[in-house]
Amino acid sequence: MKVLITGGCGYIGSHTAVRLLESGEEVVIIDNLINSKIDVLDKIKEITGKNITFYQEDLCNLEELRKIFKKEKFDAVIHFAGLKAVGESVEIPLRYYQNNLVSTMNILSCMQEFNVLKLVFSSSATVYGSPKSLPILEDFPLSTTNPYGTTKLMIEQILTDVYKANNKLDITILRYFNPIGAHKSGLLGEDPNGIPNNLMPYIVKVATKQLPVLNIFGSDYDTIDGTGVRDYIHVMDLAEGHILALKNKKKGLKIYNLGTGKGTSVLELVNMFSKINNVKVNYKIVDRRPGDIASCYASSLKANKELGFTCKYTLEDMCKDSYNFVKKNSNL
C-alpha cells in the first residue's frame, strides 16, 4: 500500500511513518516545514533503513497537490498537516481557519479526482469542548472552546458530508488526546520551532536549562491539585493506532478516541518527570490560558474493541523517552 502522510515530518506524522515503513508499506510525505525539520527524513531512514519520497509543498496549493496525486497514485492518505496551537489559534483565528480548512478540502478534492478512497484524519479531543462527564465517549455532544478545536470539528463535519455523498469512501476520524514521549532510539521526538505550545517539550526545555521556567496556566481548576488534567498518551501508541485504523476491515465512516483512559494533572506530570529523570523543573503558576478546560480524558473502549488498540507505554516511559530525545539532540 502506498500511503500519503501529510505533515509527515511533524511529531506524530514522523513516528507514524516509522511504524508504516516497519509494517511494510510505502510512504510519501508532504510537509511545508513551517513547524518541522527536514532532517527528520534522515532519522526515519536511520531507524527503518528505508527511503521515503518527500515533497516540500503547502497543501493550500491545489495545483501542486494535484500534480503529486497524479504522479504517485496513492492507495490511502493519513492527514496530519495543520496548525495546532490552542493559544495561538485564539490570537490569529483567521490563519487557522484558512490553513486547516483549505488544506483539507484540497486533499479531499484530489482524493475524489484520483479515486483515492481511504483516509485517516487526525482530529482532537478538543472537539468535545468542556465535557459534562468523564471519561469521554465518542457519542458525547461536540462543541469547542477555541478556533483550533473548531477547525477540527468543522473538518469532521466536512468528512461526514463527503461520506454521505459517496459511501464508497473509507474514512476514519481519530480523536486523540495529549501525545507525549519519543521514539526509543532518541532520534525522533517533539521538537517544535521557538517556544513550545505543548507541555512536555516546555518541561524538557526548562529541565535542560534552555528556558528558565515553566509557566503553569492556572492552579484554581476543579481538579486534584488545581492544575489542568489531561490524558497523556505515548506517541508510539498513537502511531500504532493509525496503523490499526488503516488496516481495519470495517468500512465506512468510523470515529475513535485514542487515549489511555487516565487523567494526569500538570503538576503530577512535572513531578513524575523530575523524579524519573532526576532533574529539577522550575515552574511558576500564571493566569489561565484562554480556551483551556479543567479536565479531559478518554474512554478508548471502542478503539480497543474494533481496532484492537491498547496502550503499551506508561507515564514513566513518556517522561523518560521525552528527556532522552532532547538529551541526544541538543548541544548540552
Which structural traits does this protein have?
7-stranded parallel beta sheet, 18% strand, alpha/beta, 332 residues, Rossmann fold, 40% helix, 3-stranded mixed beta sheet
Strand order of the largest sheet: 3-2-1-4-5-6-11
By CATH, the architecture of the domain at 2-181 and 232-259 is named 3-Layer(aba) Sandwich
CATH superfamily of the domain at 2-181 and 232-259: NAD(P)-binding Rossmann-like Domain
Query: What is the CA-based Rg, rounded?
Result: 19 Å
Briefly say what this structure is.
With 332 residues, this protein is an alpha/beta fold.
Structural features, described:
The chain is of the alpha/beta class and 332 residues long. Helices cover 40% and strands 18% of the residues. The chain is built from eleven helices and 14 strands. Strand 1, helix 1 (11-22) and strand 2 form a beta-alpha-beta unit. The chain starts with a strand and ends with a helix.
Strand-helix topology:
Layout: E1 2-6, H1 11-22, E2 26-31, H2 40-48, E3 53-56, H3 62-72, E4 76-79, H4 86-91, H5 93-113, E5 118-124, H6 147-165, E6 170-176, E7 178-180, H7 199-207, E8 214-217, E9 229-230, E10 232-234, H8 235-247, E11 253-258, E12 264-265, H9 266-277, E13 283-286, E14 295-296, H10 301-307, H11 315-328
Parallel strand pairs: 1-2, 1-4, 2-3, 4-5, 5-6, 6-11, 7-10, 8-13, 9-14
Antiparallel strand pairs: 9-12
Helix pairs in contact: 1-2, 1-8, 3-5, 5-6, 7-11, 9-11
